[in-house]
Amino acid sequence: MLQDVADLNLSDCHGKVGVPRQLVIKKDPSSIPYEVNKAGLKLPLVAKPLVLDGSAKSHELFLAYDQFSLAELEPPLVLQEFVNHGGILFKVYIVGEIIKVVRRFSLPNVSKRELEKVAGVFRFPRVSSSAASADDADLEPSVAEHPPQPLLENLARELRHRLGLRLFNIDMIREHGTRDVFYVIDINYFPGKYNLFALKPNLLYFLIRFRLSSVLDSGTFELNVLSDKFSCLLSKIE
Q1: Lowest-confidence range among 2-6, 51-55, 150-154, 192-196?
Q2: How does it assemble (predicted)?
């Protein structure tokens, strides 16, 4: 799905959206250093599991400082060039036509000095979890400012069309030292249950509208029943 973002080459007066260079490794960890060198990826690299099964392990991140330590990783995985982003991640939720953005703490910047002195692969927990909320943190305005709404609207509209999705979320970062250069580092089909609580009003509205369109097409109309059913469903998510 990230390739769809790259193919967009989205750039307008509100900013530019790209994707970090990445490489998929499906097997043979011993070949990773060679494949990374062949692809011309620059260190450090973020390593993420290729398949998410909902387990804690599937959401782990690894940050690799040197090529040879990459052989310690277990495929299948995605290697992605790390982009300094001030330690802040924007989770952009698209619910129909509605866009909601929340901030999360993320991996800190990596300096050139650190890259020269540090070697190995380091494991990190899931950095975008609800426990890592940065919405109320005292941050530099240049780091905390949300991506421009018009830029997000353009991105969401294009991805809805390309992916055929109406409910999904984007993990987005701003390149450190810039104001309008953004990268999409992940796209998820459906928000995790820990994030649904904040989306409840918007999600309920979306589900009712979605169901209503089907009901009207079928010639039946039970709005009150539908509302009660969806409210009951969402209450179980808490």
Answers
A1: 192-196
A2: Monomer.
**Three-state DSSP state, 20:** coil
User: What tokens appear for 229 in the block?
Assistant: 């059913």
Alpha-carbon gap, residue 190 to 93, rounded angstroms: 9
In 81-192, where does DSSP find H-type helix?
Answer: 112-117, 141-144, 149-163
> Which residue ranges form the domains of the chain, and what is each CATH number?
2-191 (3.30.470.20), 193-238 (no CATH)
pLDDT at position 50, please?
Answer: 83
Strands ordered across the beta sheet of 88-95 = 11-12, 15-18, 181-188, 167-174, 88-95, 98-105
Strand order in the sheet with 77-81: 22-25, 77-81, 45-49, 61-64, 121-124
**What's the rounded Cα separation, in Å, for the pair 182 and 112?**
21
Q: Are 65 and 143 within 8 A, CB to CB? A: no
Tally Cβ neighbours within 10 Å of residue 159: 21
Q: How far is residue 164 from each of residues 156, 196, 204, measured CA to CA in Å?
A: 11, 21, 20
